[in-house]
Amino acid sequence: MKAWSKIALAELLRPADKPVAVRQDQAYLSALVRMFGQALKGIAALPPEQRCAMRARLDAVRSACDGMGYGVGEDMDELLSEYGGDD
User: Fold this and answer.
1) How many domains is the chain partitioned into structurally?
2) Contacts of 72 by beta carbon, 8 Å cutoff, 6+ apart
3) Distance separating alpha carbons of residues 27 and 48, to the nearest angstrom
4) 7 lies in a domain?
């Protein structure tokens, strides 16, 4: 398939109500939240003496992401509470 036809196909498949930049932002932020969840899972496997410091680092990440929009801060808050954010 020629490059121009791949681009044309991609344009046809994209939802008309959202510009490309918005969908890319949403994909990036969704991936950020997924990685945050993976990091929380990883903390559970650490020795107890290392968990507190790592959880504090993730809490700093969550605080920095709080005003990003698209519900990123809320999703991270939910993950923190799910994985026992108050050990």
Assistant:
1) 1
2) 29, 32, 33, 65, 66
3) 33
4) no
| Any domain includes 9 | no
The pTM is what? 0.68
Which residue in 43, 37, 42 sits closest to 87, CA to CA?
43
How many angstroms separate the Cα of 52 from the Cα of each of 19, 33, 49, 56?
A: 41, 20, 7, 6
Tell me if 51 is assigned to some domain: yes
Q: 39 lies in which domain range?
A: 16-82
Answer yes or no: are the C-beta atoms of 58 and 39 closer than 8 Å: yes
Residue 8 lies in a domain: no
Distance of CA 65 to the CA centre of its chain: 9
Rounded average pLDDT per 10-residue block, the chain, 87 residues? 44 53 74 91 89 89 84 89 70
